[in-house]
Specification:
With 195 residues, the chain is α+β, with helices and mostly antiparallel strands. It has a single domain, classed as FAS1 domain (Roll). It is globular, with a radius of gyration of 16 Å. The N terminus is likely disordered.
């Protein structure tokens, strides 16, 4: 399946439709937790997924503007806890805080880079490795991420770019690419925006 046809699937019916089409299934079994399953995309890297899946438009913009987009092509395996557009729209203050003003010739991307790096962990942590226990992971920015796999859906807690606790509920299916395991989330907090 090409990226173009995958993009069409995502646009037409979202991740559930894409999952069903790729896997040849009608969806998840009754009572199954989508976050505990994985959609395997071995011929796509994280960059291609972020580019083609419309849920990640804002995240992809952050990757590009921060200069970190090339690392989504990398060969080092990573696990990402990625806010979707829905999560960002629920907290518009975070974007106004991290995105540089359009008129800046040499924008300060420090907060944007910190935001992205706070959601990336080296290595692959599939749902089975996180389920049924509490796990502490370390991000590439050397911050701790706590994953509570004792609850369904599982909850992720980390320190926001403002130094406050932030939380996410991972309710969506994880995406396994050639170089990453991506946990998308729609519901979360980013701490309290600065006034």
């Amino acid at each position: 399946m090409t990226s173009l046809s995958r993009r069409t699937l995502f646009a037409a019916g979202g991740m559930a439709a894409a999952s069903a089409a790729v896997l040849g299934k009608a969806g998840f079994a009754a009572g199954a937790d989508p976050a505990m399953s994985v959609l395997h995309m071995p011929y796509e890297d994280a960059y291609a997924v972020f580019l083609n899946d419309p849920r990640f438009g804002i995240w992809f913009q952050l990757l590009q503007q921060s200069g970190l987009a090339p690392y989504a092509h990398g060969t080092l395996p990573v696990t990402l806890f990625v806010p979707t557009n829905t999560a960002f729209r629920g907290h518009p203050g975070i974007l106004s805080q991290v995105l540089p003003a359009g008129s800046e010739a040499f924008p300060n991307t420090t907060l944007m880079i910190a935001l992205v790096r706070a959601h990336v962990v080296r290595g692959l942590y599939p749902p089975a490795a996180l389920s049924g226990k509490k796990t502490t992971l370390t991000t590439v920015s050397h911050q701790k991420i706590e994953v509570d796999g004792t609850v369904v859906p599982f909850v992720v807690t980390w320190q926001s770019i403002r130094g406050e606790p932030a939380h996410a509920t991972v309710e969506q299916q994880a995406l396994q690419t050639s170089n990453a395991l991506i946990y998308p989330f729609d519901k979360g907090t980013f701490g309290t925006p600065k006034p």
